[in-house]
Design goal:
Blueprint: H1 4-24, H2 30-44, H3 51-67, H4 84-88, H5 100-105, H6 124-142, H7 145-153, H8 156-172, E1 190-192, E2 211-215, E3 220-222, E4 227-235, E5 239-246, E6 250-260, E7 269-270, E8 275-279, E9 296-304, E10 309-312, H9 315-328
The protein binds zinc ion (ZN).
Length: 329
């Protein structure tokens, strides 16, 4: 008992250390992160750059940092980052300059967004002020927001991806869109297995890039994610197929449908669980060809990394979404 205060003191010290560590790591929940981002976007939006475009650029940058090895992953709530010479000015002898006056003198873009006297690329507010300021200047010179975006990214595929993300955020009025769905109703009769890289398959884009989910004719096909319909129509391999681009730079490909949901058109924004069409066996021939193989949904996933788009295996994601759907069923 006499040792109790000492032991308590040691325990207290230990718990203080643990607390300090976990604070340093900022263990925020996903909802808290979404909420912090939204408040930043609202703080820095303008009539020229509405919040959902700031959010879309931020999300696009986050997406490519997750898959590109040649670019750093920015620490912080915001993922937007700039080359050091963009920030400090091309002729600035100090590439890491954070003084607003010398950055301005050397025609750098770095701004002080939180009025602490420094323009620091490690501060989220400074990064956001810098982006908005750049887009405002480009808008003033180039005339439209679209032209300002083109000046910043100089790549149509990237700009298309950003418009998709912005459109989804605008429609749902939030960035908290992590929900996903299994593409086939889990109460239906269906079967699928991991066949990534199999040489045989019916109608991927090139070789067999995707998972085949076998089900009866007419089984509803759900969008697995939030996104915009980018492709809808006939393809000689895929038959009646739909392509949906989501907010994670992923393109979802649904092929061999018997028909599309009649209310949908290219450009429409859908959510997880939206019925986009029905299982069929279309494809492998001229428009309207059907019945050359058993009815199934061919589901493919492609990642756009800012330069290329490459296929990855949907099977692990399907397992997760199926389990979630069965839990909620
Ligand atoms: Zn397939």
């Amino acid at each position: 008992m006499r040792n109790f205060p000492i032991i308590a003191f040691i325990l207290l010290l230990g718990s203080l250390c643990v607390t300090t560590n976990s604070n340093a790591q900022q263990a925020l929940s996903q909802d808290e992160i979404y909420a912090q981002r939204m408040s930043y976007y609202y703080e820095f939006e303008s009539p020229i750059v509405p919040w959902y475009y700031i959010a879309a650029i931020d999300q696009y940058e986050r997406n490519i940092q997750a898959v590109r090895k040649d670019i750093a992953t920015r620490e912080g709530i915001i993922s937007i980052q700039f080359p050091s010479h963009f920030w400090s000015g091309p002729l600035n002898p100090s590439a890491q300059d954070t003084a607003p006056s010398t950055i301005a003198y050397f025609a750098g873009n770095g701004q002080d967004g939180n009025n602490d006297g420094v323009a620091d690329p490690a501060q989220d507010a400074d990064v956001l002020r810098t982006l908005i300021n750049y887009l405002h200047q480009a808008h003033a010179t180039a005339g439209t927001f679209q032209a300002a975006l083109e000046e910043y990214y100089e790549n149509d595929q990237i700009i298309n991806q950003i418009h998709v993300i912005a459109g989804v955020y605008k429609k749902y009025n939030t960035v908290a869109l992590a929900e996903r769905a299994f593409p086939i109703p889990v109460r239906a009769n269906y079967s699928y297995k991991g066949t990534w890289g199999a040489s045989r398959g019916w109608g991927g884009r090139r070789t067999h890039e995707g998972t085949d989910l076998f089900a009866s004719y007419g089984t509803p096909v759900h969008s697995t994610s939030y996104g915009a319909i980018e492709v809808m129509g006939w393809n000689d391999y895929g038959g009646w197929r739909i392509g949906i681009r989501d907010v994670n730079n992923t393109y979802h490909y649904y092929a061999h449908l018997s028909s599309f949901h009649p209310d949908l058109a290219i450009g429409d924004i859908v959510g997880p669980g939206t019925v986009i069409g029905y299982v069929g066996s279309s494809g492998y021939g001229k428009e309207g060809t059907s019945g050359k193989f058993p009815p199934h949904l061919h589901y493919g996933m492609y990642k756009f990394d800012g330069r290329n788009e490459w296929a990855f295996d949907p099977f692990p994601s399907l397992l997760i979404w199926e389990r979630q759907a069965k839990k909620g069923d």
